[in-house]
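Researcher:
Attend to token order:
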Amino acid sequence: MLAKIVAELGPWSWWVAGLVLLAAELIVPGFFLVWIGLAALIVGALSLLFWDSPFWVWELQAILFALLAIATTFAGRRLTLHNATTDEPFLNQRGASLVGRTATLHEPIREGRGRIRLDDTLWQVMGPDLPVGTQVKVVSSNGRDLTVEPV
């Protein structure tokens, strides 16, 4: 059935495949099928030029499509990753966003462990033993543990 559709559509079969992949991009999560759809459209454009040429066999078209799909995927990934700057670099790294802030010890640091209150959250801290009420500065973050030193 697929061979019949390709035979009837001729070079337009690649255009149809490309448009189907681009439409599937709207349904499937991620930003991946657009690059494969673009590769199919490129092969479709080449098919319009070379359809009646003896060298333009389906094997060559399939190999070219596979190579173009890989190339456009890598190029698209590189393009989208370089434009991934944000005005909120610590959006999902709350602990890292606290580095440099100062706070008062809510619980004393004993045996290297204690707690501080920053905004509305109690954070576990590591550092030298200090009494309650000491002003400390957050110097690093490791997951949910903060390392502090006295100010």
Remarks:
- Helices lie at 2-9, 12-27, 33-50, 58-82, 94-97.
- The first helix runs from residue 2 to 9.
- The first strand starts at residue 102 and ends at 110.
